[in-house]
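$ ./design --mode recover --in tokens.txt
reading tokens...
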């Protein structure tokens, strides 16, 4: 039985909730990018991203609650749970970066930070397109989006290697420790995006 036959109207709420989560993560990625590109009002922007992250937690809890109460789901309940959890990780790491910037009293963004933020936003946009295509079973469209996320993650690996290498050419031990941690967290966001698209790929392979 294909995915179309498994779609029961009353259970499409799962797709709606996943798309709601995707839009919320996109809002977080946009706020993150804006913060990095325009490095001001850090405390206020940190609070804004924390609110977005908290709303994401609420969406995920709603998904879990419905999974417990629903006998038939449109796709495997484990896949729904994985998607919700892994995409929530993206927001968690975005907030983790912003929190470090605030706690470490970073006063300006660096070129690697701006590159990472751009890669994160592009990755999340691609995933948002993929999420919107899951219910419609647009396998070729989804694969294109997923491949782009893979490419962006590879670019983030390069940025991490270059930025950490540049750090160790300086003599400021505190800056090395501080910025190395921030860069590694930013690269991890793209890793989490890649984890999300792998689950999306698995769903399409299983049900298309």
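writing sequence...
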């Amino acid at each position: 039985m294909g995915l179309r036959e498994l779609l029961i109207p009353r259970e499409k709420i799962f797709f709606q909730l996943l798309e709601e989560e995707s839009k919320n993560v996109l809002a977080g990625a946009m706020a993150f990018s804006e913060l990095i590109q325009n490095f001001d009002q850090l405390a206020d922007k940190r609070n804004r991203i924390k609110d977005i992250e908290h709303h994401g937690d609420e969406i995920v809890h709603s998904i879990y609650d419905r999974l417990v109460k629903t006998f038939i789901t449109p796709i495997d309940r484990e896949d729904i749970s994985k998607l919700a959890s892994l995409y929530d990780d993206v927001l968690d790491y975005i907030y983790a970066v912003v929190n470090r910037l605030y706690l470490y009293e970073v006063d300006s963004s660096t070129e690697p930070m701006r590159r990472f933020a751009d890669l994160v936003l592009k990755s999340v946009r691609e995933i948002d397109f993929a999420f919107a295509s899951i219910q419609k079973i647009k396998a070729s469209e989804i694969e294109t989006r997923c491949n782009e996320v893979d490419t962006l993650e590879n670019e983030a690996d390069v940025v991490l290697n270059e930025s950490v290498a540049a750090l160790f050419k300086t003599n400021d031990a505190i800056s090395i420790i501080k910025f190395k941690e921030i860069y590694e967290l930013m690269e991890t966001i793209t890793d989490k995006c890649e984890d999300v698209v792998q689950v999306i790929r698995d769903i399409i392979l299983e049900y298309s």
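exit 0
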